[in-house]
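Hi,

I'm pasting everything inline rather than attaching a file, because the server keeps stripping attachments. The sequence lines come first, and each chain or strand is labelled.
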Amino acid sequence: MHSLNFWPSTVDGLTLGAIYALIALGYTLVYGVLRLINFAHSEVFMVGTFAMLFTLNGLGINKQETGIALVGLLLLSLVVSAAASGATAVIVEFVAYRPLRKHGSSKLAALISAIGASFFLQEVFALRYGRDQRGFPDMMSDPTLFTIGGSEVNLSKVLVFFGAIIMMVLLDLFVNGSRLGRGIRATAQDPETAVLMGVNIDRVIMLTFLVGGLMAGAGAMLFGIRFGITQYNVGFLLGIKAFTAAVLGGIGNIRGALLGGLLLGLVESYGASVLGSEWKDVVSFVLLILVLMFRPTGLLGERLMRARA
Amino acid sequence: MNLTAWRSLLPSIDVLGPLSRFWARTPGPLRIVVYVLLVVGALVLPAQSIGSFMSPQSDWSAILFYPIGIYILLAIGLNVVVGQAGLLDLGYVAFFAIGGYAMAKIGVALKWDFWIILPVGILIAAAAGVILGAPTLRLRGDYLAIVTLGFGEIIRITANNLAFTGGPRGISPIPTPPSAPNVTLGGVHIFDFGGIDTRPFYYLVVVLIVLAIILVKRLERSRVGRAWAAIREDEDAAEVMGVPTFKYKLWAFAIGASFGGAAGVLFASQTTSITPDNFPFLLSMYILCSVVLGGSGNLLGVIAGAFLVAWLPERFRGLADYRTLAFGAALVLMMVLRPEGLLPSRRRKAELAEGTGGMGALGGEVASAAAQSKGMDE
Amino acid sequence: MTRSRVMRSMGVIGLVAAMSVLGVACGNSKSGGNGGSGGSTIAFMGAGTGPDAQLGINISNGAQLAFNQWTSKDKKKYTFTKYDTQGDPTQASSQAKKVVQDKALVVIGPAFSGESKTADPILEKAKIPSISASATAVSLAHQGFKYWHRILSNDDVQGPGDADFMVKTLGAKKVAVIDDQSEYGKGLGDAVRGQLKKDNVTVSPSGTLDPKGTDYSTTVNQIKAANPDTIFFAGYYSAAAKLVKQLRKAGVKGHFVSGDGSQDEKLATQAGTAANGALLSCTCSLAVGSSDPAAQKFEAAYKAAYHTEPSTYSAEGFDTMNIILQAIDKGNTTSAKINEYLKTLDYKGVSKPIKFTDTGELAGNLLFFTEIVNGKLKFLGDAKSSKPVNGG
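And the predicted assembly:
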């Protein structure tokens, strides 16, 4: 048994949890509409991290930037990562899911197809860019902004946490407030009626994948700020964790993804502190199994339509 | 580009269709002759002359045992779960690991004989299947997939963390089966398990595979097999018709797990040293690939799939780096173009054409709604 | 025949034709690859492909260089053949059987400790002498092998040596010891912990991390809370890079020390400036920047042949091959004779002086240090005389 290190564990748990939450959105949105675990979503995230790496390398960043230049760099990274992930998600939908959907294939087939797409993407990056992890250039200094209970809170952690919250609020507004968002909700609730009301199903599904991909890309960029490293299989564990977060909050539920992500981040962080880091993944897998056994609908209930609840 | 259009191209390259129809018409006695020929073929397979073509860069009989033989045994076991009962298990390697550690731990600590540990290991693995299945088999199919994935990782990480299992160092030396070095058959010391020659282990795995095939075939035609088919096609309907679905799903899990356990015991006894790294998630994926590529539900297809998945990277070693890439692409293409596998079972093919057979149709409501809207346009 | 039937038959014929062409092509290209006649093959066993290939390639490059430099008139009779294990113990066992089938004279390798465990018993049974240039697990020497050797000291030398270096050279009073839960990392970490306790140095915190994980904040927080003056990590460079990066980002100062698993320039490319000043130990010797003329010659020849500096284990691979060639030059042309010769060997290699004990271990305990200076590995030499460039 080790000491809990309460405040530092809380800060780091929330930071990681915010990234989980952003990735979890992709799982939740797709599940809400298609009732399908998009296994390839972890690779959608991975592509985003590489997009950020290439942006930084392409610009020849080799020193710490400050002021406007840094803000511009961060925004550019965000746009590129989100675009890359969004595009990947749409392509995956088009290649690995749409033909199956048209053919009315079994869900088992879709799941296997998704796993295949996931491994294919991983290996493309492994073969092209090597199996070793790649470090990002050191793009910003990371001063301590303030301390909570003796724990220093750095700029990067603040950026990650509030960046994720802002993205999620924007998404919530989009899904609940816009016309396109209504289409997503309508399809999630009752596809047959949605079609009768003139919703174009294919477009809605594509939009759902796109939005999930954009969020994963934003998560990838925040991940890059926090950890500054990536690898072809970086998405594998994070993806499972994010899926756990989605289930924990109630899959299909956007606010549930936020709650689930933060909660999972905290549980993992505390669990690793007390039991030792080597048990960290076991803690989250056991939590996943327990949630599925005792509250399979998650903490906030399942469906996208109850996002307001 | 319309991927679905590719399907129409397929019949022209369907070389296996006539073969399977021929097989269906073959009378019983002739089938037995074919079976005998297959067994004889399996016995002479380790010959050097065959090996020099099949694996010029490794010892062929060692390759025949692992990965080929072990993969086939594992694939037959996973096929019970995925192909016959329609449950997606992504953590199958866990049962292989449990069998391996059972052999290693009991063999080293209690010094029991391999022949006693084999059934014990099988029972332990089956029990693990029940323990995992009992709380989770009531879940929806896609949740089950992720839970089994988690279970596989939990087993591997726990084996790595505990001193009981030797931690990252694993366990060695693991005892080999008792030898009778003087018994020969065709010049091979078939019961000499302590030597360099892997052929005794290869013959042992062949025996286990044959037993597994007989068992699975019998199950398929029994009440249990029919219940699995019903569950796979439409679980709700099966439940309504009075099939105790939970019980039969648990059976599938336990039987699948026990095959994994048997493979694990044999594997550990042959390599004499196991570590948690022997049981990565990727192995679950390779076995799943074997089942799906070959044609889940059809034994011959599954065996052929496992053989290819195990043998191709060994034969074409320069291309081994591309193995996972090729498998990933193959999985997507198979699901898009030929979801029933290379050598499909006819029943599965029919089910898949209906969009049933394992967890219901993809986005069931969405697809039907889309079809409806299409109808309205016309 | 209907149209579709014709198409089908043509499909079958096409497939068969394609397969036979494939088979013939492969059969031709492979024949003669490993076909060494009895007792003339010098085998290398180790990773040539796969995720850990680089270390194996470093060794085989060194060995190949020595073989190419060999000037004996009997050179034509011998072949140097590489058996690719991909660093995987199960593949190593089938490759070892292949080595036995090919009646190899002597084996350089197996490279890693894990694969040695499965392959060594097979080589031992076949009475083929083996010399590993890189496997450092302690237990390998305790199996009563008569044909097994290695030309570097084991993990039992590295652990205490690292501890002594931290205490004596760096003046450590409080050391954090983190391992990666791998077979290698745990063994090394425990050895360091044990020696530090003997030296009455505080070990805090003492923990593990998951090399595949990305967020090491739990470990970083524990280290930050304990505030040690030195951090020792037992594991491989990819985890070391993540750890040192997150440590420096969290403002943790203090020396970062690690073992041979982290002795790779990739530590610097992955961790960036955070890796500067990292001190890395190895029972292997890089043999670069040496004052010994033989080592200088080796360094120049290696650079000329491979357009890169000799890297971890290259010098050991070079020495191992030279030892074998020397044995052959002295008329030891069978496996048994070579094994006898190794018992009496006293050889001055470019990496270190080489002599074997009765168990096949290297005589004398030797540990070397390198430091990351401006993103490059700088060889500091023997642990006792190593002086860190950046402070100390």
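The interface with chain C takes residues 11-15, 17-18, 53, 56-59, 61-63, 66-67, 160-161, 167-170, 172-173, 195-196, 198, 271-273, 275, 277-278, 315-318, 320-321 of chain B (CB under 8 Å).

If the labels don't parse on your end, tell me and I'll reformat.
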